[in-house]
Design brief:
Structural class: alpha/beta
Largest sheet: 8 strands, mixed
Number of strands: 14
Strand content: 15-25%
Length: 419
């Protein structure tokens, strides 16, 4: 099997040389129409749709799988544009929107997104997928590609259910094995959000395809507006952790560190703000949040926040904390550094790939090390924090423009296979 693994340089630009039609799958965003707060993958699919509309207006189509199953078909582009505007508005203003009004508006948009028949292909087609939505259904994907007469390019976010099944849902490993089987059999192009992800993916490719384009494209980081809002900012010194509360994110370490801080420093202890919803199999962490008296007043849950609220909280924090055991990319690290916020995070390959030499890296099992770092970063004019801020001046985020350059180059390379 011939694999092309290329990390496309930052200076890559220009337009594709092959006039292939691109069909972008919008299934995940449609399935999340009633949710006020997006996940990281929701944001990625949204940005792909928005940017591809700007880049490929004359050769872009949209499609989706129906929530009840089966291929939904083509979506009218005008209705997609309106749906994207609606999606952006509800994410930005989650704190002022009525959920019932959002549901009613979502229903109107979904009605406008009624599918259209798939037209006869008059040129090469690329079916582009930026989420793992329905990739576990190999037969469905095969049927979609046959109906579209298209080649598949898929963005893979991680294979954590395979490398760390203990951190996935009960059926996570089985479902992700099916995703990898679909990728192995049908993907002509694979885009990994990090080299760490690509390394993990290639370990599960069996050679079912003899031609494949594999590229690394770090996710882009949008500029962050840290202007204050009306949201409540904690008094005094505080740290933030941006992550779903689930075992893989290792909140339990932070909660035990904060219990020790509260016992040692009392009212002078910094606060910990947990930005993220409650996930699954998190009973130990939730028990500490709800039942540990020592943490009362020191740990604040801030789930379902709007983008503006979260950015305001980042703007006043001492550092972002991310003690994860495993990551595919590490968007919170990139967003924090782009906002000028120091980062203390796990010493794992994906986070080093994103953060370079800027963050403070610690073993996710080193509780005393995390305790010492947090104390050091809490003091006024902290030398350790100042040293990281000096390192951060050399760090540059990957832009979404560059990421989409890699996507376009991958489309071009896959389309060239059929000439």
């Amino acid at each position: 099997m011939l694999l092309t693994r290329t990390l496309v340089p930052r200076w890559l630009g220009g337009r594709p040389t092959i006039d292939a039609e691109v069909v972008f799958d919008l299934s995940r965003l449609l399935s999340r129409s009633y949710h006020l707060t997006p996940t990281g993958i929701d944001r990625v699919e949204f940005i792909y749709a928005r940017e591809l509309l700007n880049r490929l207006p004359d050769r872009l189509a949209f499609a989706a799988v129906h929530p009840a199953g089966g291929y939904y078909g083509r979506l009218p582009v005008g209705a997609v544009r309106q749906f994207l505007s609606f999606t952006d508005a509800r994410w930005q203003n989650r704190d002022v929107l009525d959920p019932h009004a959002v549901r009613a508006a979502a229903n109107r948009h979904l009605l406008a997104l009624r599918p259209r028949p798939v037209p006869t292909a008059d040129r090469q087609r690329i079916y582009l997928q930026a989420s793992h939505h329905h990739l576990e259904d190999t037969d469905l994907v095969a049927a979609i590609l046959k109906r579209e007469r298209a080649r598949l390019i898929a963005l893979i976010h991680d294979v954590i259910p395979l490398t760390h099944p203990e951190f996935a849902r009960a059926d996570g490993q089985t479902r992700h094995l099916k995703v990898m089987r679909t990728i192995d059999q049908h993907a002509s192009g694979i885009i990994g959000n990090s080299a760490a992800t690509v390394d993990a993916v290639t370990a599960h490719l069996t050679g079912a395809r003899t031609d494949r384009v594999i590229r690394v494209a770090h996710l882009g980081t949008d500029p962050v507006d840290l202007q204050p809002t009306t949201s409540q900012i904690p008094d005094g010194t505080y740290f933030v952790c941006v992550a779903t509360i689930e075992p893989r994110k290792n909140h339990l370490l932070l909660l035990n560190v904060w219990r020790r801080l509260a016992e040692k420093l009392g009212a002078a202890a910094p606060k910990l703000v947990l930005i993220g919803r409650r996930g699954w199999e998190n009973e130990n962490a939730i028990d500490m949040i709800e039942r540990c008296a020592a943490l009362s007043g020191h740990v604040i849950e801030a789930s379902n926040m709007s983008d503006r609220q979260m950015q305001a909280l980042l703007g006043g924090a001492q550092a972002l904390l991310l003690p994860s055991f495993a990551e595919g990319f590490g968007m919170p690290v990139s967003e924090a550094l782009a906002a000028g916020l120091p980062v203390i995070c796990s010493d794992i390959a994906a986070l080093r790939e994103v953060g370079g030499d800027s963050p403070e890296y610690l073993d996710p099992l080193d509780g005393l090390g995390w305790l010492a770092a947090i104390i050091d970063y809490s003091v006024p004019q902290s030398p350790r924090r100042a040293a990281q801020i000096a390192r951060m001046t050399r760090w540059r985020p990957v832009t979404w423009h560059h990421h989409l350059d890699v996507v376009e180059a991958t489309i071009d390379a896959v389309a060239a296979m059929t000439r």
